[in-house]
């Protein structure tokens, strides 16, 4: 019995013909394979393709006619005979493998005796596709034509042909076929009322060439048809989608089949025969789910995955499998898609490098490991994790059983450790870093007495997994645990015996400490991270390990930048630039576009921060000048000189980011492009604020909005919050310059939304800064509205920020918040004529001044000017 059915589509108003409902369906197929050409290049695989497709269709219940190496007469006769046979069939299917060409918008099949002696004979030799398709669509209710004939132009360069019915020679298209017109529409008078439509499939998109495959193998298109055409329980449309994406993956995105369907019924094949191998069925099922999900992947994401696969030399299949996992877990760690996919690609690359051909001694371990390998190769990484977990359970049992078997113990222990490590690597691919760390620890315990090199790798990998766990989930305990793991690894890799491994661990400790240091108020951890990076660079050099040296240079620059920004230390910020420059000597936009973009952006961000700190250092002098009655306090010499210096650095940052943006494709590297836009916006914002240029602020706001097109609240919440916060800052500054309250009101709404997405427990410093920014905006709104109500909200926001922003965050940072609270109390007292608020403003100013004196960070110029102003206000009140 033929194993396919026609199912009535839900939108059809008229029923399936009685014959199709009451009787088994009849399918006929014509399979053509053209390999041995007289004058055209011989093809390696069409004969094999045709035989294999014939066998598969026969197994599905089709009555198959197979034609191999047919000349023109034989090919035309076979097609005519098949059209006649199709009149009594429900489904007619044609598969053609061989040379095919397109000329003047029409497609032609090439017989083996194609005559190139003249344009006329060449044209007369060819067999047109369109008449065959139209005849079949009238003969059978359903027509399926699959053309594996899009190979590069087989004709000699400049070959001209005269098409049948024409007199003038026309050129042959250099590669690919043209889109085939469908069969006669049902509405036409001569259309067959029982026709249910047609499916036309090309091995490649119209106008694009297809690959023939390696000698002795099937073409990519034929292989995909053989793999999926018999899939039970899927509509034929889904089957062809699976075929398309299978070819796309197997050719590494070089070939994408094309299908045009006009079916007015849902065609599906019956369930496959029960299989004895449930695991292979599970892998095949997950593969098909993956292929169908790839078809719905946004173009921007697809392009990024292709770029990442090429850059990291990893299979597309596994990266798309990771996307399936991220569809569930992308928001767990609060990090963005790019970072997680990049990390996953690096893990996959390491896993591939660590694979060995060694057969595990235990058959069950070998079986489960092979199943996991097969699942990973098919992109079914979630299923692979299940097999790895099963293998680890088996490894648990073996770990106990093999203790007594001294003669096999060493190999068994190595196998057990490798099983745990494989399981850990797959867990990491699924972004389950905590589970991965546990498994690497078990791998280390299993092998530590048997293989020192593997033990070192597993211990470092345990530390890496804990670092990732801490980074992605804000689990600071995991970061602390990673440091302990790295210290254990250092015992196994002393500098004098294993200098490169020692340097690798130093760099890893630096990364973990930097991540932890960014989250806690104490700067000691950040300071230590710098020391570890510098230690790594005493071994890693530009000559002996340039790539690793560049990574450590970038890490060092980042740590110096982070600490300098935290403490307002210009010397530290200035020291961050040379490491970035060093890394950029190795990294290029052509060889490593993703990493180059990151480092180029980091350098520009440092310039922006240096400019900001340079100018902020004169805020006290500017305030003192204002309090002293200077007409234009921003133009006193010290402030003017700092502004000029800062503006020059901001100009450099704007130019550098603009140049980097021009070298970065938004389509292939959207997150890197957005990162550069963000840094450019920050530079424009600060330049506009320093120089009172409203147009710079507008450009900054526009650039932030462009970044938010890439970093959405749903997909990358952490990046969305950071960018939205900066957009709010730019809008507030724009109101400062234009006296227009509308941008300020928008900024206040944005601040509130950002604070809502910033948990204090996980991000205390960011949370405090955003509360302070909200307070500043509300205080400014009070001036526009002439009411004291916003000041009450502003003071509440400042009080919350004050719970976190202590002197440990830096004297100037703390002073800025205390001064904002004092001036807001002063404004509240003036608006409400409330002496109590003004007294509070004075007491807070005195307390702040005295504390700064106590710690050796006085700001006498500001307080000498500010406190008398408060006294003048107090004099307005009755004694």
From TrEMBL:
Pfam families the record matches: Peptidase_C14
GO molecular function, one term: cysteine-type endopeptidase activity
InterPro entries: Caspase-like_dom_sf, Caspase-related_regulators, Pept_C14_caspase, Pept_C14_p20, TPR-like_helical_dom_sf
Sorted UniProt keywords: Signal
Domain Caspase family p20: start-end pairs: 25-154
UniProt key word Signal: yes
Signal sequence segment: 1-20
Protein name per the record: Caspase family protein
Organism expressing this protein natively: Devosia nanyangense
